[in-house]
Amino acid sequence: MFIISLTANNVVNDGTNSNLLYRFPTSINLTDKYIAVSSVSMFYSWFNITSAYGNNTFTYTWTSGATTTTYTITIPDGLYQIADINNYIQFVCIANGTYWSNGGLNYYPLELIVNAQRYAIQLNTYLIPIALPTGATIPSNFAGWPSTTQNSVVIIPANFSSIIGYAVNFTSPVNLSNGYTSTVSYIQKNSIGTISIISTVAPNVQPNSSVYITCNGINNPYTQPGSIIYCLNPSVAVGEQIIEKPPNFNWCKMIGGSYSSLMVSIVSIGLQQLYLKDPNMVIILSIRDKDESFLGTK
C-alpha cells in the first residue's frame, strides 16, 4: 500500500480552494489499483450564503405617504444562522431609516426567527403606524410614515427561499388598515396587525452540511458521477478544525492506465463547486494493489 498527501501546496489557483492537483514524480500505471481516503484534516470554512450561490438577497417595502420604496437586503458572503440573518436585517433597516424607537428599543418592520416546535422559519411583519406612537422617537434618516397603516411586503426570491423554507418569490401580505384576513393555515394575523408566516417546507440553512470528496480516474459504474470517493460530515463548529479518520477504507477501483496526476475536489452534495475560505488542509489518500486482499477488496 502507498500513500499520497495533498496539502495547500496542491490547491489549484482558481479562487475556490477546493480543487487540488497532485502530480506524480513520473508517469504511474494505476491498472488494477484501488484508492481510498485515509485521513482528512481541514478547517470548516465554507459558507452557506454567497453571491456565487445566488442565495443572498431578498426585499422588503416601506411606504412614505403614498410612495412605496422597495429595499433590497444583500447579505454579505458568510456562514449564517437565522439569528445572524435577522441581525443583518436590523442593520439594513437602521441604514435605510425604516425603524423607530420607543422605551430604549428599536422597532423594525420585519424579523426572521426560528420556530423550533414547527421545524420552520417564521417571518413576522409588523403594522407600521401613520404617525409617531406616544413616547417614540425616529432617527434622523427616517424614511417617513405611510398615509395608511400597513405592513412591509417581503418578497423571498429563488435560492434564498430554500435557505428559509419558503416558496420561490413568496410575497407577504400588505395588510392595509389592518384589514387583511388569512385564508391559509400557515399565515396568521393578530389584533394589532402582526402577521406571522411559517415556512412550508423544511429550511435548508446550511445546504452544504456534508460534502463529497471526488477524484478523477475512478471506475464506479454504480453511481453518477463515478468520481465520488468519500463523504465528509463536519462535526465541529464553523472555523474549527475537522479531523476525519475513517474506521474502514472505502476502496475505489481506478480506471486502468498511466497517470501523470490526480485531481481531487471537494464539492457540495449537489455536486456544485464549493468555495473554501481556508486552503490549509491535509488529505491523505491510500493506493493499493489488486492482490493486497488482506486490506479488504479483491
Number of helices: 2
Report the strand count.
22
Mean of all residue-level pLDDT scores: 94
Q: What helical percentage do the residues reach?
A: under 10%
How would you describe this structure in keywords?
single chain, 298 residues, mainly beta, Jelly Rolls, 2 domains, five-stranded antiparallel beta sheet, 22 strands
Describe this structure in words.
- It is a single chain.
- The chain is mainly beta.
- It folds into 2 domains: 133 residues, Sandwich (Jelly Rolls); 142 residues, no CATH class.
- It has 2 helices and 22 strands.
- The longest helix has 15 residues.
- 26% of the residues are buried.
Q: How would you concisely characterize the structure shown here?
A:
By secondary structure, the protein is mainly beta.
Secondary-structure blueprint of this entry?
Elements: E1 2-7, E2 19-29, E3 33-43, E4 57-64, E5 67-74, H1 82-96, E6 100-102, E7 105-107, E8 110-115, E9 120-125, E10 127-128, E11 136-137, E12 150-151, E13 154-156, H2 160-164, E14 170-171, E15 187-189, E16 195-198, E17 211-215, E18 228-232, E19 241-244, E20 252-253, E21 258-268, E22 281-289
